Structure formats: C-alpha cells, structure tokens
Amino acid sequence: MGIIDVNGIVKKYGEKTALDNVSFSVEKGEIFGLIGPDGAGKTTLFRILATLLLPDAGKASVEGHDTVTDFAAIRRSIGYMPGHFSLYQDLSVRENLEFFATIFGTTVEANYDNIKEIYSQLEPFGDRRAGALSGGMKQKLALCCALVHKPSVLFLDEPTTGVDAVSRKEFWNILYRIRSGGVTILVSTPYMDEASLCDRIALIQQGAIFETGTPAGIVSEYPYGLLAVKGKPVYPLLQFLRTCDGVVNCFSFGSECHAAIDSSVTGCSRLQRELSGAGFRNFSVREITPGVEDCFLQLSIRKRDGMR
Amino acid sequence: MSWTWFFLLEKEFKQFFRDPGLPKMAIAFPVLMMLVFPFAVSMEIRNINLVVVDCSRSEASSLLIRTCTSSGYFHLVDVCDDPAYAQRLMDRNEADAILTVNADFEKELGNGSSLPVGIKVNTVNGTKGSIGSGYLTSCIRMFVAQYTAGGAGAQTSVSTSSPSIDVSPKYYYNTYLDYKVFMVPALIVIAITMLTGFFPALNIVGEKETGTIEQINVTPVRRSTFILCKLIPYWLVAFFVLTACLIIARLMFGYFCHGSLWNIYLFTALHITVMAGLGLLISNFSSNAQQAMFITWFFTMVFMLVSGIFTPIASMPRWAQAITWLNPMRYYNDAMRCIFLKGSTLTEVWYDALGLLAIGAATITGAILTYRKTS
Q1: Looking at the domain A4-219, which fold is it?
Q2: B7–A103 C-beta distance less than 8 A
Q3: Looking at the structure, do residues B20 and B64 belong to the same domain, yes or no?
Q4: Overall pTM surpassing 0.95 (yes/no)
C-alpha cells in the first residue's frame, strides 16, 4: 500500500466524464507527477484526494485514510495548493501565513524550520498585501501556507503554471528539498518538460491514465526511432514527412518536426534524400532520443486508435 | 480548537476594517438612516400648490384663503376668477389643487346652508392628491367653525339651522401624528435587514469566488465554525448600528423607546437569525457576487414593499396580505413599532416573535439542507 492509493475513481459532471476509472499509487517520499493537458481531469482528481469532492465510484485513500469516510484525518495531515491563487489578498504575507498556521492549531515559529528556505525570500515583503505580490512570489507564499503545519503529504495542482522559467526552476529545487524531509508530493503540470523532474509520473488525458512509471522508464519504452527535422516551410514539410515510407507519425515541436520512424524501413540518410528529391532546401535531419512529450503523443495516439 | 474561533474572528475583523467601504458604511448607515431618511421618507405632504378661483371676492373668501395658506401646507400660486385658467395651471403641473369659491359664498355662509365651495385635486401623485384634499377640507371646516363662532358673537342670531358636530381626533402613541416618530423604528428595521442578511451573503460568495473557501475547506476547521465566524462580525455591527440609531433618535429628535430596550434587542436578535439563514441560502445558490447581488436585490425589494413600512398591510388586497405572512420584515417592523411607540411587551407582540421564529427555522433548515447538497 502506498501513501496515496487511488482505485478505480470515476467522476462525472452531468453527461461529461471527468475521470474514468483512474487508479495509481504513490510511494512515501516521492515526487509523483500527474502529466496531462488542460481539461484532462487533473484538478478534479486533486479535489477528490483533498476531500473537497466526492467520487461517483471507486475509492481513494491518503495515508490509509479513506477520502470519503475519514476526511477529517486527511485534512489534518495534508497540504493543498490549488491551481489558482487562493490566499487572502487583503491580508499581508505574514498575516496569511500566521492565519493558516493558527487554524491548524500551530504557530509559524514552531514550524519555522519547515518553511525557512522559502519564507526567507518572502520575509522582505512580510507586510505587503498578498494581492500585490508577483506571480512567482504568490506561488511561494501559497507553498509556504501549505507547508506551515508540517504536512506529510503535499498536493500541488499546477504550481508552476504562469510562472517564469527561472522561478519554475527555483520552485522545483524547493520541492526536492521538501521531499528530502520525507514529504510525499503529488504534483500536476501541463508542461511535459517538467515531467522528467518527477520521480514517477502518470500520463493522463480525457480523464484516463494511460501510462504510469518513471520518466526514464516511459521514455525507454518508446517503440520507434526518432528524427528531428528542421526546415522551411514548416507545414508543407510536416505534410510531406507524413507521406514518407517508414514514418509512423510526425508532429511539430516548436521550429522542428519530430518524426517517429520504423528504423527497419527508413533512417536519417534516406529521409534526407527523399526531402531533397521533393525540393526542400536548407534542412537538417538528426537522430534524437525521445522525451516525455514524444511518449505522451505516441501513447495518446495509440489509445485513440485503440478506442476506435 | 477554541482558539480557532478567535483566529477566524480576528481574520474577519481585520478584513472588515481593511475593506475600503465597510467600516465607513457602518458609521454612515445609522447616521443617514436617522438624520436624513426620517425627513425624506415622510408621508407628510407640504408645499401643495394651490390655485384659488375666487368668484366671490368677499371678506369671507379672503379670510378662507388666509386660513388655508397659514396652515403651512399650501403654497398659493394664484388667485383668479377664471376656472379655465386655473385648469390650465393644473394641466401644466403648476397647481396641485384648485379651490373654487362661488359668487354667493358670503351670503350662503351667513345662512348656514350648504357651502358653495369646490375642490379639484391633481392625483397624478395619489398620496399627495388624497392627503392634499384632506388638508384642504379640514382647513375649510376650521374656517367655517371660526367664522360662525365669530359671527355668532357679533350678531346674536339664532343658532344655525344645521347641528354642528365638533370632531376632535386624538392621536394615540404619536400625539402629533409625527411621521418621523413612525419611521424611526422602520428605518432601523431596514438597516438591520441589509446588514445582517445581505452583506454576509456577499462576503461568503466572495470567498467562493476567490477560491479561499477551498483553502479553508482542506483545513480541520469545521464549515459551521467558519460560517458562524463570518456571521458574528456582522451581528456585532448590526447591534452597534441599532444602538447608534437609538442614541441618535434620542439626541436629535428626543424620541425614546416606550417599551423595554431588551425587547428591541431580542426582536433584533430574532430577525438576525432569520436573515442569517436567508443570507446563507442565497450564498449556497450563487457562485459569484453578481448573482448574489441580484437575488439579494430581488428579496430586498419584495420584503420592503410588502412589509407594512410604507403602506399599511391592512389596506392590501387579500392575496398580497397572504404574501406578507412569509415576510420576516413584516413581523420585525410590527414588533419594533409597537415596542418603540406603544411600549408593547412580549405578551402583546408574541405573534411577531412566533412568526420570526417560524421563518427563521425554515430558512436555517433550508440553508443547512442545500449546503450539504451543493458540497
């Protein structure tokens, strides 16, 4: 049994199924990432685990406490940071922190060690109203408030959405330090590049989890070779690549196209020949190792085709 | 856990006093209610524009005109002898009432037979019209009484042919029929209703809107504790406003409560309970402040119009009277006026207490039931 156990959770909003038979388990002291696009059902799952929402079917438990019958015990031991900033904007940084400490029956001083590292960055703004903080600072304050009562499990719903690249990196460093204190962290993110920062991840789309494992494990199971093709114009290039022999699928990734290939049929040099034959100039083709995003797209296609 | 209450309340008060509008309003509300509205929400009609069509042009008719204007209720626009001209003035909204005195006014007056005087009233504003004509009639009656009394002394004539009935009404509980006295308790009713029902509802919906209620819900704080801590500051403000209103009424107008102040506070507490339930119901059904505002506005309008504050409930049609039974303001207003003006005790206004208790039980039960359903 893990610290967080999710077993066949189903949640419907009217006709729409938000979560469809979701199951996974999180071990003690790991950072578990829930990776999926907007609207995949991540927030719904977080709200169920944080005892804010009742599932229509299935069971979930946090530290052995059932989320439905034993919600009071869960609320004492978790820290929850919702996706949108939800602290009191008209209270100052210090007042927010003190308020959330006191309603858990503790004080900021008693748990100062727990939040010291993050709070030290916020302390110069102690008297500023929370509403007047920058985006990154708001997230740090929210994390402080979620940590101030020494929770053993932390739920972070899209903590880095809308935060700049530097602050995101900093935020992840903070998460590693929190984990080293033995805290289990469930984090969700729509950013695939953050997936590799987690210990284990679950890929979720349209309310269903289609893969769970370590980022490296998921990447290693990528069944095809992968080529990055750079060239112009992008859209005709993409269209052409999809028609080539041995190209299983092809997606655009920023300025490049990632083409999944059957290595027994085609390869780097053959594709180069075909591209110049089709009249493309100034392009480059190189072999790359797949990332989590490649796996996500690959698996979501397989799932879609499987459903057909 | 007991400390949690303290910290939740501390937070509410911090937010209350930090709000740019609320603390100012808590002060401005009683002041406005007591110093401005008693004059503004008065049923007393003054400055009725009067045109007199005087065909008699006699001493008696000019005396009649003087009696009318000296009453203070009328503003004499013109005295003429052309009824058509007077009508034109009324058509142009320059005259509210026309008093027509016929040519043989003085003669008929001496005879003591029926008086040839006509009154026309502009009833675009119904209240002004009906009350205006009432004032005018009583002015004429007063004039006739004075004139015949004066004439009798001078002429030693035989008693007038028609027996004169001298009716002198005595106003109980409000000796001078002063509308301000009558409106003070009613304005307190309006102030308390606004403060205790609708502001907490908006506050709770505000926490929903910003998502902070989620953050509270994942803490061990019980929802009932949280909600109660939201309501308490407004209750304290309500009692503050009530006390301030009573003090201002005493100092400014010299009005004092004829009944027991304990009863005033008791009924206020009962009304607060009702409004708390209603406010929570509203907050359960609205997900943003705009919705809450709209529902709030709807209820305020309906409650105020059928509360008996502005128009007597007894004069409403049966079906409208039936609606008022569901209106908590009706009971609270009735009790407040009875206690304040008459000095009624609980044994006399027990039915108001019962009404408030019944509605309070219904709204609070409803609030609790729907709260579970929506969570």
Answers
A1: Rossmann fold (3.40.50)
A2: yes
A3: no
A4: no
